[in-house]
Amino acid sequence: MLSHQYLFAVPGVWSAQGLEMSVGKIPFLEAVNGSTVILPCTYASCIGIKDLYFNWQYNDNGTMQKVCEAVIPTEDVEPDVKIFRERVEFIGKNHKNNISILIWNITFEDGGLYTCFGRNPKEKNKNHSTVFHLIVVNELRVVDNTLTIIIASAVGGAIAFLMAFMLLKNFTLFVLAKLEEKNKECLVSSSGIDNTENGLSGSKADSKPTPKKK
């Protein structure tokens, strides 16, 4: 009973070991009709794999059609993949757990939802799946960057104005400092002139010699 309570108390430890399939952070792709695309998928398992079964399936209006399938004996063995759909190529060479596929010369009929499924017997047939959405279009949409340009221009203008203001401020302070320094020099000079004219100490006025006693 204690062991069951312990397992229930820490489900995260066990879920971290479960098989996980992933198509990346962006689970969709918009591609032009006639181009070649890659549908990405990788698997991960904390305890490793043994005879991992995987397949790709296409959702055709609610009916799942198998695209390809294979069994990977171990992580260092390249699988023998069976292909069930035209223009499909398996490009995951089991490098970095890669089981991606490539579709040549896509058509509008190729657009839709693709499921990447995996089952790991080493984890008591733990399985997981993830979906990738392929969107086929005549041409890629042109993104209107007008708002982005306006915002960037406004931000750039504000930064330029701030820099110009700071330069003007520093220049003004520099000029004021020079003027203050010049004023101090003028005050010192004028003070010396006043003392000279008043015959104070340091003046150059002629002094009469003291008469000698006979």
UniProtKB/TrEMBL annotation:
Gene3D superfamilies listed in its UniProt record: Immunoglobulins
Keyword Transmembrane helix: yes
GO MF terms, alphabetically ordered: sodium channel regulator activity; transmembrane transporter binding
One GO cellular component term noted in the UniProt record for this chain: voltage-gated sodium channel complex
Topology class, membrane: Single-pass type I membrane protein
Subcellular location: Membrane
Ig-like domain ranges (all copies): 11-132
Compositionally biased region (Basic and acidic residues): 205-214
GO biological process terms held by the UniProt record: cardiac muscle cell action potential involved in contraction; regulation of ventricular cardiac muscle cell membrane repolarization
Record-linked Pfam families: V-set (PF07686)
Transmembrane parts of this sequence: 147-168
Record carries keyword Glycoprotein: yes
Alphabetized UniProt keyword annotations: Disulfide bond, Glycoprotein, Immunoglobulin domain, Membrane, Signal, Transmembrane, Transmembrane helix
Region feature (Disordered): 190-214
Protein name (record): Ig-like domain-containing protein
Species in which this protein is naturally found: Gambusia affinis (Western mosquitofish)
